[in-house]
Amino acid sequence: MWLTLLATCLVLGGGACVLIRDPKNLPCDDYDLFDPVRRVITEPWTLRTDADYEYLAQQAVHQSNARSNSLYKSMLVRLKSRAKTSDGDIRLTVLQLESKCRNDGKFVSSLAHCPLRENGLFHECELTVSAPTKADAKIKLRGQSCVKTDAELVLGYTSGLPSLVATQLFQSSATPSFAGFQVPLLEHFRCFALRYGKTYDNDEERALRFRQFQNNMKLAYLLQATEQGSGVYGPTQFSDLHPVEFRKLSTGLDTRRKGSPLKAGRIPDMDLEDLPVAFDWRDKNAVTPVKDQGQCGSCWAFSTTGNVEGQWAIKKGKLVSLSEQELVDCDKLDQGCGGGLPSNAYKEIIRLGGMESEGSYPYDGSDDKCSFQKPEASVYINDSISISTNETEIAMWLAQNGPISIGINANAMMLYMGGVSHPWKIVCNPKSLDHGVLIVGYGVATDAKKNPYWIVKNSWGPHWGVKGYYLVYRGDGTCGLNLMCTSAVIA
Ligand SMILES: *[C@@H]1O[C@H](CO)[C@@H](O)[C@H](O)[C@H]1NC(C)=O
Ligand SMILES: *[C@@H]1O[C@H](CO)[C@@H](O)[C@H](O)[C@H]1NC(C)=O
């Protein structure tokens, strides 16, 4: 999918390399966040646009890396300001951050290629460089002074609490820009709209969606720049939505209200050595095909049915696809398409007297009048439990008992395309759970990074993520996935 585009390389005096491509000749392809091409430089000695200065700042940081004995390359995150000095030099105020790339002397401009270290050193620096001239395009770093700063400041927010970074970035339509980010062009947006069958009512709507697409790609770039696993982010079916709109239409875990309290389930008495290294309930006929909640905040219903389907299949030996619509219409503790909680849904299934199958009470993705008929119920549940927040114990319970309903922060899921997703806590606050999904298994990646992961069944159709599934890092409470683990009990 990530088609490498033809580009030529211009070597500047400093040994740096700029890829040149005429944006008019872009082939109709997915927008590629990993593509470092971001502008056309014709005369390296003329500094006109902000992008020219940003490139100058990247070269200055590159030269400063060459002088440093740090093990890791520092990367420009943002050029804060620039000024001419009295003797004709240029003073750049930059925010830079230690990356995961070794300080090997190679110039890298894209944060997607050198992701930042979560606990790396954050600096605000003043770099003074000679102005490039036609006779000498090579710039010289004349001086630098740096002070340590923190991640939030570098990423764009100074409000204090770590949670605010995630909240503000993922709820606004104006994400600050990050160095090396290639702003998608109208051409890219046309390809995106074509690919996902998007149609817009009028030019105004189209223009709005284009701006939203550009902003979302900036968020994807931020996720990529801070990715700790092997997650890949970019355009998805949600990339023209405002993050708040996305949450309303495609998630629906309602944590504003307190859910029904559940008693604690029993964690199997198991030696750690006896825990399988990988486990997948899909191989054991306990998981139905991936469903699609559509434009309705009913994730909580899908998370619940997924769990009950698994429990019924394991206890009764029959895999039955169950009705989310029954919960959307008949569950009085929850708000249908307006959101809900699995802990309430279990109680309501017991009150109603069971669940109809998908076939007898089909999903239409809108709030309707309840038409549940008890004689039509194909399954029942007797009770519900909460499971541990300890991921080892969650794995033990899962391997012995079945898929688990969980809550998660969906920030990274909105733009997830594959790999084992492992976002920083400040871009995926574990305390802001907004989406209900289902853990169906776990494993360890076979690539060099060997990331342990959970296999998470989502309800955004089979074309999202990895065939409808999310692979997310296992072991450090990524995106809060361990904080709301529950299950129905069938006696
Ligand atoms: C579980 O619930 C079903 C349906 O309500 C009921 O028939 C059954 O007796 C219950 N089992 C136990 C052990 O309570
Ligand atoms: C998590 O649970 C496992 C198994 O019960 C235990 O060995 C481990 O110490 C627990 N970890 C924490 C942080 O409590």
Automatic annotation (TrEMBL):
Q: Which GO terms describe its biological process?
A: proteolysis
Indicate yes or no for the key word ATP-binding.
no
One Pfam family, please name it.
Inhibitor_I29
The Cathepsin propeptide inhibitor domain, residue ranges:
189-246
Q: Fetch the InterPro entries from UniProt.
A: Cystatin_sf, Papain-like_cys_pep_sf, Pept_asp_AS, Pept_cys_AS, Pept_his_AS, Peptidase_C1A, Peptidase_C1A_C, Peptidase_C1A_papain-like
Keyword check for Hydrolase: yes
Which GO molecular function entries does the Swiss-Prot or TrEMBL record give? cysteine-type peptidase activity
Signal peptide location in the record?
A: 1-17
> What positions does the domain Peptidase C1A papain C-terminal occupy?
275-490
Q: Which UniProt keywords apply?
A: Disulfide bond, Glycoprotein, Hydrolase, Protease, Signal, Thiol protease, Zymogen
- SMART domains registered for this protein in UniProt: Inhibitor_I29, Pept_C1
Which family is annotated?
Answer: Belongs to the peptidase C1 family.
Q: Protein name, please?
A: Cathepsin L
- Specify the taxonomic lineage: Eukaryota, Metazoa, Ecdysozoa, Tardigrada, Eutardigrada
